[in-house]
Amino acid sequence: MTSTGPVSSAASRARRAGWVLLSLFVVLGAVGWWGLRGGDAREGAEVEPASAAPGVPVATTVDVSPRAAGGSGSAGASAMGAPHPAGADGAPVPSEKERERQAQIDLWRQRLERAKRTLESYVAATRYPPQSRPIREHPDQTTLAEPERLRPLSREHADVQLRLKQDRVFVVGEEVVHFFVSCEDAQRQSRPCQVLSASAHESEYIHGAGAVPAVPVTFTDDGIGGDALAGDGVFTGRFQPAKQGFPLFSGTLRVDVVVRSDRAEGTAFMDILYTPSPPATFTGKVREEVTDGSLMLYLGINVRKAGRYVVAGRVDAEGGEPFAHISFNEELKEGSQEVKLTVFGKLIHDEGPAFPLKLRDVEGFLLKESGDPDRELMATLRGDVHTTHEYPASSFSPDEWQSEVRRRYIGEYTGDVIDAQQQLDLLLAGRQGEGGGKPPP
After folding, report:
1. Phi and psi of 21, rounded to 5°?
2. Using an 8 Å Cβ cutoff, are 263 and 252 in contact?
3. CB neighbours (10 Å) of residue 107?
4. Backbone region of residue 318 per phi and psi (left: phi > 0; alpha: psi in -120 to 50; beta: other values)
């Protein structure tokens, strides 16, 4: 008789092995399917196992989220193709390449603005020629030089102030210069003052100074010899180099003074530039005409020494309001001739001065190529020299001054603006092409 027990036991074991293999295939298939989907399964998703036969172990839950792979959520998002990590405010953080491009954009914007300012400043500064400028650009030239300064009497007596003044700096031929000395306290109130002594000599910085001995200069407060008012506390010294020891000297002369106020004493000095014989003289005659939209003033001059001459004058509007500073700087030959002083048309057009205009305080000198001093002075025409005719505003041109040098500089500065703009446009276009947005304003 045949036994059935062993056969039934073997069949049971075979069925169990089949169910285990089937369960493993199901689990592995689920994991492979998620991988093929590129990680689309939700974080924390679970895979349910197939039903198992009695006695077969049930498959556990499989965590296929990015955390299960050991990464954070943001890292996972980046791995899945997110454009940029988010900053603290939630906005995308720019890449290193974008930061570099933005830095270049900012740099070229600054260069563009600087180039524009340079061009605009140059155009504005050169709309009038150098020899015809608004007088406000030369505040130190509004009047002839008459230096005045206030300084302590001495280090030990700083509470006593010494006021020093002179009626001219440039002295020519037989001309006389007047010096004025007075004493004040800290509140600018007059103090007792006395000039104990004064002397004129060559300035110490001149090479070979001392060849001409010093000469005394007398200061008085008696109301005569150039002193305005007797007993007012202002002492006046009169100095005429041609007749007081320096008839042939050319250069800087210095006048030293020793001053006392009560028991306090101190010293000071004042300088002049002296030319014994002028290289040329003004005739004082002026003719005028309107040429190319500008007012030309032709001043007569007799030239003894040929060379480069610099001549300057002031122009006032009617009523004495300072208006323009005009000058001449050219080579002149010997003989009688004219120097042209131009009142530029656009300057008149822009400022609108009331006519007639007045030319006053004209000075000039011969510029020397080497040596000290660097010039030989002409005698100054002080006060009003010429009064012009009256002209309608339409007589003068509104056009800016032009020259080869100005055109060249404007061209160069304009090129700088164009180059900077092109570089900026290229950077903005590159950014727009990458980001797909509009360029920043």
Report:
1. -65, -40
2. no
3. 14
4. beta
Residue range of the domain that includes 358: 132-139+279-395
Residue 270 inside a domain? The answer is yes
Domain count within the chain: 3
Is residue 347 included in any domain, yes or no? Answer: yes
Over residues 383-413, the pLDDT tens digits come to: 999 999 999 999 999 999 999 999 999 999 9
Q: Does 144 map to a domain?
A: no
Please provide residue 373's backbone torsions phi and psi, each rounded to the nearest 5 degrees. -75, 170
331 with 232, same domain?
no
Question: What are φ and ψ of residue 91, in 5° steps?
Answer: -80, 150
- Considering the domain architecture, whether residues 187 and 265 belong to the same structural domain is answered as yes
Q: What is the pTM of this model?
A: 0.74
Give per-residue pLDDT as tens, 185-227. Answer: 989 999 999 999 999 999 887 666 667 889 999 999 999 989 9
Same domain, 194 and 304: no
Helix ranges, 88-138 (H): 96-125
Are 256 and 239 in contact by the 8 Å Cβ rule? The answer is: no
